[in-house]
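Case study.
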Amino acid sequence: MTNHWVDIKNTDLVLIMGGNAAEAHPCGFKWVTEAKAHRKARLIVVDPRFTRSAAVSDFYTPIRAGSDIAFLGGVIHYLLSHDRIHHEYVKHYTDMSFLVKDDFGFEDGIFSGYNPEKRSYDKSSWGYQIGADGYVVTDPTLQHPRCVYQMMKAHYSRYTPDMVSSICGTPKEDFLKVCAMIAETSASNKTMTIMYALGWTQHSQGSQMIRTGAMVQLLLGNIGVAGGGMNALRGHSNIQGLTDLGLLSNLLPGYMTLPGDAEQDYAAYIAKRAFKPLRPGQLSYWSNYGKFHVSTMKAWYGDAATAENNWAYDWLPKLDKGYDILQVFENMNQGKVNGYVCQGFNPLSSAPCKVKVSGSLAKLKFLVTIDPLATETSEFWQNHGEYNDVDPAKIQTEVFRLPSTCFAEEDGSLVSSSRVLQWHWKAAEPPGDARSDQEIMAGIFLKLRELYQKEGGAFPDPILNLTWKYKQPHFPSPEELAKEFSGKALKDVTDPKDPAKVLVKAGEQLNGFAELRDDGSTACGCWIFSGAWTEKGNLMARRDNSDPFGIGQTLNWAFAWPANRRVLYNRASCDPSGKPYDPSRKLIAWDAATGKWGGSDIPDFKPDSAPEDGMSPFIMNPEGVARFFAVDKMAEGPFPEHYEPLESPLAVNLLHPKNDKARANPAARVFKGDWETFGKADKFPYVCTTYRLTEHFHFWTKHVRLNAIVQPEQFVEIGEELAKDKGIKAGDHVRVKSNRGFIVAVAVVTKRVRTLDVGGRKVHTVGVPIHWGFTGVAKNGYITNTLTPFVGDANTQTPEFKSFLVDLEKV
Amino acid sequence: MALQSLDIKARSATTTPSPQARGAIPVAKLIDISKCIGCKACQVACMEWNDLRDEIGSNVGIYDNPRDLSDQSWTVMRFSEVEVQQGRLEWLIRKDGCMHCADPGCLKACPAPGAIVKYANGIVDFHEENCIGCGYCLTGCPFDIPRFSKKDRKAYKCTLCSDRVAVGLEPACVKICPTGAIVFGSKEDMIHHAEGRIADLKERGYANAALYDPQGVGGTHVMYVLQHGDQPELYAKLPKDPSVSPLVSLWKGVAKPLMSLGIGLAVFAGFFHFVSAGPKEVEEEEERS
Amino acid sequence: MQVTRRQFFRICAAGVGGSSLAALGFAPGEALAEVRAFKLARATETRNTCPYCSVGCGLLMYSLGDKAKNAHTEIIHIEGDPDHPVNRGTLCPKGAGLLDFVHSPNRLKRPEYRAPGSKEWTPISWDEAFTRIARLMKDDRDRNFIATNEKGETVNRWVSTGMLAASASSNETGYLTHKIARSLGMLAFDNQARV
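After joint prediction, the assembly is written out as follows.
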C-alpha cells in the first residue's frame, strides 16, 4: 500500500477493483465503512461477481474477468478527453512534459522492437529523449507531439466507451457513471483510493492492470495524499515482509537485485543501480545503492566481506534467467531439479495446473516440508481417492515432514500491508516436538556447514563464512535477527559534513538507513527496515496508539518502513510551493521558519529541501517525477495495452482484430508443451475465475473446525441463465473442466453472477473458490488449481488464476 | 445470588417479586444491515466464546452455513438476493438470533421456574439447568429462535453474552464485527446511533430506511437498521409486526386463574409426561395459529 | 385468537406444571439464576498479531495459568486487541476462529519421513532428519553447483535444489532463510508473493 489501512478513512471515493476487500480483508475494509459513515464517501465495486464488497457498495458494475486494462484505459480516455485531470499535479509531479524517443512506436497492438520468436521486446526505443546535458528533454507546454501527454492521449483515444463496453461487457451507462464519479476526485480537495489485490495480479497482464490504475490516480493527483493512493492488499500476514526481505528468485533485501551473468564487474553492477538524476536538482535516492548493498554484505559475511574482494560480490549467485516458481516447476518437470524445500508453502494447492505440479514433485529425489499443518504438498505421494489419485509405489521421492510452530508459539515481527513492522509475543509451547522455523533452518544449515568443514566440497567459502554470532547457534533468537536486519555500526559512523562528529559509535544499533555507509563501517541486513531496532530498543514493539492529528497516522505504533513514514510520496500532497492541497487532510507542509518539512507524517522527501529548490516528490525515480511512460521497466510496453487472457472466449482482441500477435500478451512466457494445454472457446466456452471466500484463508482454515463449520464444502458459483441452459439447480453437483483437468463441486446458482454481452455475444462466468483439498477437517474437495493454466504475468510470472476457460456439466 | 449488575426483572414460572430498588440501564445490540458484509465473524466468535461447535455440514447451493440456528449456532447469517429496484441487485444479509424482547414470549410461555430470566438491563437469558425441555419457549417466540439440543433435550439461544456484559464487556459478536455493523450500548444510545445511520442511508437513496424495534413485543434489545424498513420480510422473512403468540397470552390470561381453581389430576399427569418425555411434535398448523 | 383443543390442554398442563413445581418444593428462590462465570478472570493475556492476511490485526491471547513454573499454559481464547489502531478489537471469521487453528487436530507434532515408494510416514528424530537432509543437499550441491558458465563467467549458482519460503513466517525467519539460501548459491527461491 502506498497509504495504510486506517488512512482509508480519509477518502472521498473508494474504487475496489481487482480485489474483494470486504471478504479478503474485512478488518481493513472497516476503514471503508468509516469513510462512508464519516466523510460520506462512496464505494464503487467493479468485479465479475457481485461480491460481499459489492453488497455494501454505492455502485456496482460487472466486468469480464481479464479485461480491466480496457476498462481503466477507458477511464484514462474519459479523464483526458473531458479534461478532468489535476493540471498542476501532473505538470509538476509526472513525466507528462517529457519527450519520448523518436524511434519508439506502436502499431496494431505491438510496440517497437518486438521479436515474435522470442516473445520479447528489444526495449532500446522505449525511452525519453536525453539532451546534451544528460537530462531528459521536456516541453512544459505539453504541445510537442512526442511529449508523454500527447502520446498518451493518442494511445488511449481508442478506448472509447463503446469499445470498453464491448470488451468488458460492462453496460456503457454504468461505465460512464463510474467515470463521472472518479472524475470528481480530480479536484484538489477530493481524493479516491484504489484497493486491489490478486484480482489484478493474477493475470497474464496483471502488472499492467495495476499500472493503469496508478495512471488514473496520477492523472487525478491522488497519489501521495491522505485518503488516496494505490493500495495493494497483500495476501499473507508477512508476504509484504518476505518481499521486502527479498525472498524472491531475483532479489536481495530491500528491493536490491541480484546480478546477471554478464555483470562480472562489481563497480558496474553498483553503477547500473545507483541511478543518476535524470532531471536537474533531483534526489534519486537509489544513488545510495552502494551503501545499502555493502551493508547487507557486511551483515551476511562480516569480516570476510572486504573492499579487496568487492564485499564478497562473487559469493552472490548470478542469474542466467528468472527462477520464479513457474520456471522452477518447469525445470523440475524436465528432471532438472533434485531437491525442494517447502517452508510454510503448499505448492500442490497454490501453484497452477496440478497435474504438472504433482508430476514434477514426483521427479524430485527429495522434498522437505516445514509446516505447522499437514499440507497437501507433504502428502502429494499419497493416494486420496478421486482428490489425489496417485500410486505411491511409483513415486520415488524421499519426503521429510518437519513440524513447525505457529504464530502463537513464537516471538517475532510481521509486516502488514501498511508496511508496518509489528512485534508479537509467544503465548504457549508448540504441540509435541514442533520447533520454530529459525531452529529448523539453523539445524539444517549447521549440519551442512559441519559437512563442508569436514569434507570440503563445491565453493564452500560463503557457507563457511556466513556470519553466525548467535548466542545459541542452534536457536538464533528473534531479537538477534531483528537487530541484524535493522543494522549496526561496525566502526564509528561520523557526520559527512563534520567528520569529528560521531553519529553512532561502533557496536551500536543504527538509527536508520541514512547512516549506512559503503566503506564497510556499517552492517544492515535489510536497509529499508533500518531503524526498526535502535539503541532505544525494539521500535516494532511500540504500542502508543495516539493520533494527535486525528487522521490516523499513529506514528508511535510499531514501526513503518521506510523511516517510519506512513504515506509514501507524501510530498505530492502539497503544491509546488509546499502548501497542502487539502489543509483538512494535511500530511506534511513546508515550514519556512524552521526550514523543514513536517506535519502528521514523516516527510518522504529530503527534509530540508525548500520548495524553491525544485526537487520533485518521487525521490526513488531518477526523474524525480512519476512516470506515465514506463520507459523500459515493463515487459510488454511503456503504455498499458489491453490484451486478452491466454484463454479467452474471444477469438480476437477487439482493439486489434486483425493481428493475432496482439490477441494475448505478446510478451507472456509460455513453455514448450504448455501451448497444447490451453483450451479454446469452442470446447471450453465459459470464463472461469478463482478466488477466496471470507470464511476461509487459503488452504489453512480447512484444518480449523470453526471455519469449516461456517463454510464446510466446496462449491462453484454460476449465474441463473447458465444454470437454466444446463438444467442445473442450486445444490446440484457439477463438473467443471478445463483442458487440464476437472473438479466436481456443489453449484450455487445466483443472480450475483451475470451473463455479459461481450462484443455482441453472451459470456457466462463460472466462479470457483479455492479453499478445499484432501487434508483438513472440512469436507474434502478437489484442488482448484487442477483447472488453472501454467502461464503467468509477463513481468512477475504470477499465474493467470483469474481468467481462463472451462466447460461445465451437471453430474 | 444473581449478580447485582444483572438484577433479575422477570423469571419464568415464578411469582416472587423482582428487586427493583437498584437502577439499571437497558442495553441494546444494534445490527446495521447496510454495513454487514456477511463475513460470519459473529457466528464464529459466538461459537468460540460460548464453547459451542456446530456440525460440519454441507453446502446446499447457498452461502448460509450452518443452514439454521441450533443449540450450537446461536446466530446465523441469512442471505437474500433481492431486486427492490428493477435491475439493481441487492444482497441483504441479516444476522439472525435472539431479539431479546422487552416482552419475551419465551419467558411468558416457560413453565419451568427460573429456566428463563430477564435481567433488568433487558437481556433475556436461558438457564438450561432449570430447563425441563417442554418446548414452550419455541412456541412462545415470535422470531423462531430457541432450539433444542439433541444431546440434553434442553433449549438454547443467544444469551447476549450475559457473562461478558456482567463484567462490563460487550457481547462477543459485537466486539468482533469488522465493519461495526453490530454495535452495543444503552438502548437510548443505540436508538440515537441508528438515527444517524438512517439519515446517512436516506442521503444515499434509501427513502424507507428505518429502525426495527417492533412494539408488538414491547420493543427489543436487539434492533436492526434496515435499508428497506417498510419491507422487513425482504430480510429472510423478518416478521413485519411480530407479537407474542396467542397461546402464550392465553397462558398468562387464562391458565393462571384456572390454576388457582385447582385442576384435575389428568393434567398433572400430562405435565409429568412432558417432564419425562419432552414435547411431542407440534403439528404445523397449530404452530402457526 | 383461535386456540385448538389440544393447545388449550397443553397450556393448562404447562400452567399447572409451573406452579406445581413450586408447590412440590422447588421454591423459586432456589431456582437461582446467575450468569455464566466469566472465563477469563485470571487467564494470562499475551499480545500477538493475526497470522492470516496482511491487515495485521492485533490479538489478545488468553491462556490458562499464570505462567508459574508448574502451570502448563494452554490457550483457551483469542480475541481482538482493542488498542490496535487498525482492527480496534475486531476480527474477521478467520481471526475469530484462531483458537481452532492453534488446536487443530492436523497440527504436526513430530518429524516424519516417507521412504521412496512407501505408502506411509515413519517417525524420525530431528537429528536424523537434519543429518539426512544436509547429506542430500550437500551431495546435490557438490554434484551440480555451477561455478562458471560456458562463457567462463563466474556465476556461483546452485539451481538443482530450490526452496519456497513462507510468507506467513516472521521477518526474523525470513531474513535468516534468505541469508542461508543465498550463501548456498540458491536461485530457485521464491515465496507466496509470486502466486
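Observations recorded in class. Chain B is about 30% helix and 20% strand. Chain B touches chain C through 65 residues (CB under 8 Å). We will return to this complex in the next lecture.
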